[in-house]
Fold these 4 entries.
Entry 1:
Amino acid sequence: MTTRDSATGAAYALRDILPEETTTKDGRLVIGGRDVAELAAEYGTPVQIFDEVGMRRGIRRLIDGLAERWPNSEVLFASKSLPLVAMYALAASEGLSIDVAGEGELRLALAAGVDPARIHLHGNAKSDAEISLAVDSGVGTVIVDGPDDIRRLDRFVPEGRVQDVLIRVIPGVDAATHATMQTGGHDSKFGLLPEQAHALIEELRDHPRIHVEGVHLHIGSQILDETQFADAVRQLRQFEGLETYDVGGGLGVAYTLDDVPPTVDAYLDAIVEAAREVLPEGAKLLIEPGRSVVARAGVTAYRVSTVKETSKRFVAIDGGLADLVDIGYMDLRVSTLVAERADEEPDTTVQLVGRQCESGDVFMDDGRLHSPAIGDTVVAAATGAYSYTMTNNYNGALRPAVLFVANGVVRVAARRETYDEYLALHAPALGVDWSAAPERA
């Protein structure tokens, strides 16, 4: 069990949770060479800030670490964790292939210039449009979730072309994570039971346009016990003689000081040791990290808008469920600090809450901050994964800007949504007389 030092100073205490390229200057939080409070003032809040250098370093640890252990390997970025054109381009530039789940993510990846041959299309309910676009674009691999995917591919893959596929199997591993993030149990909506997968592989053995390259599995997300990944890999012993085995992603990260996730080395060791037990020598091994690539690299900066004391001391910030839905969806609690006084030891117990009209809009229960006051910049650490993905307009909130910072340089990956854009979807209703229901046509 890894322990963390209890040295003074908020930023120092959170050094394993904040981005790798985090420092302080004159007591203020600095990420990627830029003062976080100054960025919040310039770009508005909420704003998501990513440490680009640290993120690239983390990607290389995964790619190089897996290749050292299993040379015939490939690492895919699970892009649903941060679907930004900038992120697709960055991931591809560092050697990651791309995992997309749906037409929107596929279009973003293509717009970023990702080689279609290095894209894998996922999804348990793919549409005709998605399959057609994937085939027309030359997507390298389609993850088949069931027979309906095959029927669609049969219609859209033209004569003279061969589409590689992986068959998704249910490994029967109940991951020790939040129920909303479990994907590999016996009752999962994803994939096929092993006997069904075998039957489909046999059915497709002589198909002229669909080539079964191998199998795929995934047990869930935010998993802190590396032995569960090994357990899942061992379920593949029943699929002998295939070219490729994709064992998914799901490596967890630290959101609070109580979380102790596996190191990348421990995670890769567990997977590869199990793979050596059950997979054919020379087969290709794939993993699909997402959260572990982007979570720690990203923080979200907010402005304190209200401080009040009733039964508790409530500190309210100008974001919440609209930009970090997991605080309500999966009861996520995050680590926070005041950017202007990042070196100061927390001295105040607070209930840190968001501005959305839900009681579940809570960032910290009885958390600690240093003398929070209206106008302060509060930073929520390790919010780089799934936060932008699930941004929404609850209570009329606007989607935040996203910044990538490196060596003191800021690049805008996504600008802040405007109220004109928010209202644009309602344009058909403008100018209509809504005073009464229309007469029967």
Entry 2:
Amino acid sequence: MGFVSSTVWETENSRPMRSESSLQPVHSPIPAPATVEILGVPLALTDYDEMLDWIDAMIASDERGYLCACNVHAVMASQEDPELRAALVGSSFNVPDGQPLVWAINSLGHVLPNRVYGPELMSRSCARAAERGHRFYLYGGRNQGALVQLALNLRRRHPGVKIVGGYSPPHRPLTEEERLAIAAEINRSHADVVWAGIGVPKQEKWMAQMRPDLRAPVLAGVGAAFDFHAGLVPQAPNWIQEAGLEWAYRLAHEPRRLWRPYLRYNPRFMTAFAKQLSGQRQQGSNRF
């Protein structure tokens, strides 16, 4: 399977194993934020603190769910990929990771001050976990070396954070044997949160598929967060992010990898959302 050597990770075999009576996701009674649909994808009207509190509550109650950091790429890819769409609709939450989604939500009449950016959510969660003892598993990364570097960087920035395992999967679909092996490996780690960083749409589909087999209360798909925190790709300055131009910054740094999805999905999103917005305004005017 190519798991990273266990010497890289913390081991705490005294941790009690979670119950094996049911690995099925539990519909949580934990208060959920309101959602709004953008092109049929439900997006949570939430913020970092609420999502961190939700993660804490899921761990404390030993319930199970998964969240997706959702950007324009994910929303538009789901329009033509039924499996991805089902994964997004079936998630616990889709947080608006991209600034254009925040603008879209607000243009529909809601008030959402800021996005919930996947890399930032992961960083804040690491800081909180260092204080509260939550255990993290890392699934993703460009290769095993990048995954080890990610773990080292997170430990340097958040002393005390418990990273108890990691695996960088092959760039192909897993065999059934591999899928069962990775599920067993993650369950043996006693992780509280599994961070998935294998990109859209792989990570969303993987979480939806693996959720019934994993004991970790929370799975979280955060895309490029692994590359950013490992130091492989630079993050855009804050002013570029706030201006909604992060896509241009990333395109300038990774043109060969990103030009196709950006060229394909960004213009389509603008056109499709303009139709949704126009339709909602037309419905509103017809009420009077």
Entry 3:
Amino acid sequence: MKIRRSFFPSAPVALFLAMAAPWSTPAGAQTAATSGSTTTVSASTTSTTSTSSSTTTTSTAALVPVQGVVTGGAESVSFSGKAKLSADVVTDPDFGGIPTVVLSIDLSSLKGVGASTGATYVTSDLGIVQRRLAAGDTVQFTFPFNRSGMSPLAPSVGFASFNVSFDVNTLKLTSATGRIGSP
């Protein structure tokens, strides 16, 4: 008898459901202080079972204060606001490998102000990166932004950097800091 396994195990379904949760902070959320600003961290854990194994997804959300200046282009732009981080850690029960972290970073709440014109700049970027779980990690990526009300077809580019820490035993995001700069 030949056994066939689905190419799409139940872990992606649990991951989708965890990521579809609203960006609200439940009562009793953990709070970590970071250089005068506050990062709010909240967590939940879900388990799914397939025919051959059980996968655990631990979801942690955080609002991370970020700021920084992107230089170059038409003018320097000073960004500030809170990035929304969602860290979903998925275990690998079939092979016993290191859990995988799917980190979603939403920068759409950031606002930029032009140094010479005072114009408002915006971004709607959502960065998604996948990594192996580690106690500490740095995630860096570029993001597009444009002057509010202008066409996003020729965006300027900024650089985002986030330092994240995880408790590797509970699979939860414990702290995060972020900054904006030039690529």
Entry 4:
Amino acid sequence: MANFTTTKRTKMIHTLSFVWNPTEGIDLGFFVIRYYSLMFVIAFGLGWYIMKKIFERENEPIDKLDSLFIWTVISTLLGARLGHVFFYDWEYYRNHLSEILLPFRFSPTFEFTGFQGLASHGAAIAIIISMYFFSKKIMKRPMLWVLDRVVIPVASGAIFVRLGNFFNSEIVGKKTDNASTFGVQFIRDHFSSREAVNATQMASPKQAYDAIATNPQFRNLLEQVPVKHPAQLYEAACYVVVFAILFYMYWKTNIREKQGFLFGLFLVLLWTVRFVVEYVKESQGGFENALGLFSTGQWLSIPFIFVGLFFMWAAEKPIVVSSKI
């Protein structure tokens, strides 16, 4: 799946590079479970389990959990897709409207593409909107009560989404500098499947990528692959910390009684991580060239951070009215 190599860099500095060439997934013979899809399944499955424990603690009917699960899955996928379309690639999709919600490309020829873009900012907005309606129509609880608890499984899910990005060799980091001591060679990011096949004359993209990664005959091709920051792993590791903080504060403290605090803390922590990690990510496009200074991901993270700070500042314990006279 991957190889460790030691690459000699300029100024006589040696960098440990990790050659990343994962298989597409777990081959069952009749079906391949793609790692990216598997990470989403784990994210939603773990999220369901965490919310089940929360519902049990709050004495909420478990049947509401199924509705919550459906609302969350739909809003996450739909919001992430629309977020990518409008925040990062509207110049393309404005002329290809049918491809926004269909996993097909009709020009220049018909092609199955899948959904090649998902944006976490769009997912966050969609989840917040859907939780408003869920809290009113089904939960019969204040919206902030729902959000304070939903953000815990959402934080855990973010970990696996970024691991899925790593398996897909997408959302990669910038090239490491001479002072770096660690990096990854993302073969599938550097060479498209067509380029790999043409360069190696192998029968399939998998054989071509494997040859570039392991065959000394194609060492010159491997040397063309730059060593980059594994930004996905940096982000996933930070999200573990975010999840741990939220999980601890909900289960071990009384901070959950302050409606809006955990939701605000989630926004501050998660989007601060996103803002910082963006410094080592390759550009994902969007409107950053028009605004300058920050990347698109950073500009989109700033409002979430300020909104989170507001909710933390405004959070108050619910007022309990005594029935005694």
